[in-house]
Amino acid sequence: MQLTDLSFEQHFVSELPGEAEAEPFPRQVHGACYSRVRPTPVAAPKLLAWSEDCAALLGLSGTIDAEMCSEVFAGNRLLPGMAPYAACYGGHQFGNWAGQLGDGRAITLGERLGQEGIRYELQLKGAGLTPYSRNADGRAVLRSSVREFLCSEAMYHLGVPTTRALSLVGTGERVLRDMFYDGNAAPEPGAVVCRVAPSFLRFGNLELPAARGDQVLLAKLADFVHQSLFPEISGSGAEAHGAWFGEVCRRTAVMVAHWMRVGFVHGVMNTDNMSLLGLTIDYGPYGWLEGFDPDWTPNTTDLPGRRYCYGNQPGVALWNLARLGQALGGLGVTEDAVRAGLDDYKLTYEATFGIMLANKLGLDSIEEESKLIDGLFSLLQQVETDMTLFFRRLAEVPMNEDLPPWALEPLVPAYYSDNPPGTELMAWLELYRTRLAAQGVDEAQRRARMDAANPKYVLRNYLAQQAIDAATAGDTAPLNRLLEVLRQPYAEQPGQEDLAARRPEWARNKAGCSMLSCSS
Hey, CA dihedral for 248, 253, 254, 256, is it positive or negative? Predict the structure, then answer.
């Protein structure tokens, strides 16, 4: 099926109140879940990257018309059935209530019934002004758009719950941005990403009407969430809302456990960036742990408090869920129901991450392995250790009856220092070997489990920056090569080993390769 054959639906806008189409000047929007708004056309749209996997979800197959895709997914042309809008929501940012936020540069085109009867929303990020743009221009730059496009697809293939990305289109226009918030704004090439998800509803969609005391709008939106996102939950009213809140808690726990499993740090876990479906959403100043450090955050705006650092993510998600539960209190959802959902979050996270960590080590379980686990995380912090490489290469260390003298050699590339913790590491490996033996795990079983749980390829910031630099210069080959490799993160992929290497020293403090800002 080709792009022009697609049909689009509009359940969100047909079932919820919104503003009629109007000029996108900044304003407070009351009594509405969205505002009708059209994308702002761009000068010279050009398709830079395309995800065939994501296209297949929507029923798109075969050779695509690049010119048509460029026009549609830059926002220059609407297909029949598309009725674009920007959503209205609020949120807590860095722990403080921020009031109305909304889709300031994202415009949803419509919904498409895709594979297995799942409805998907298509949303353009960087498509122009909306009523929620505040003092911004509604646009996105190429560097942030490349990062969002690549990371959406990389996370999906890692097995992490996530929104998807269909396309990356250059706009042919320049966008003024102050990358470091230091008063040195400069023009950058612009781009638009088409994001895809069953829903882009966030915690903040419900928080805003609750904060305003708009019980009528809150009830309509909560009913829509129940019926469209969690139709398997029976009943109605407060009891049903409490039940689907519990499901949001469980899904969020699974999502965060996956983040921790692969060493992903979101960087800006505000409640407006938390999906009601437990999907990773809004890829901004994210990063992967390279030197293992629970206090690491990729977001310069998150300093010095490090609220959103790697080690805080499970607790922040719980705090965010509590804010959602508080919003639902206005609909009669009881404190007991909210507490039960939050308890479910804790139990689900602990159980899920426990299973994931056991798989990362090739063990049957880690329920009685506190000494082994505590010793491991202590070791990872003694000397700067690349998390991805350590776990992947640990599978290559032979766990036979006696550890050979060269047992540490497979792990050497994981260390940023010439002096890995030899004695302590050998002692830990010996403990690890005895635990594998006690659980009856043989070498083949261990290796299979570990290789399926520990990716070889992740979207390191320096790799993304190299793709950005090349694309800025007009060369999209590195971007598309990286996309293809990230589609098989657990495979060996001979000839692609350079994309699995630890961060080079030149990238340690280079802009875009370590810390990032929220600038986009």
Answer: positive
Residue 452 token pair: 């399926």
> What pLDDT sits at residue 460?
96
Tell me if residue 272 is catalytic. Answer: yes
Q: Kindly state the average pLDDT of the residues 193-220.
A: 98
CA-derived radius of gyration, the chain: 23
What values do phi and psi take at 391, rounded to 5?
A: -65, -40
**What are the angstrom distances between the C-alpha of 207 and each of 90, 335, 343?**
6, 16, 21
Which residue stretches of 159-269 are H helix? Answer: 203-212, 215-224, 237-262
**Which residue type is seen at 105?**
R
Q: Which of 53, 65, 214, 272 is catalytic?
A: 272
Tokens matching residue 488 = 């098989």
Q: Are 226 and 248 in contact (CB under 8 A)?
A: no
At residue 176, φ and ψ (nearest 5 deg) are -85, 125
pLDDT in tens, 393-426: 999 999 987 888 888 999 999 999 888 888 999 9
Tokens 């080079």 -> residue = 504
Secondary structure (3-state) at 439:
coil
Confidence band for 182, pLDDT divided at 50, 70 and 90: confident
What average pLDDT does range 124-131 have in this prediction?
A: 97
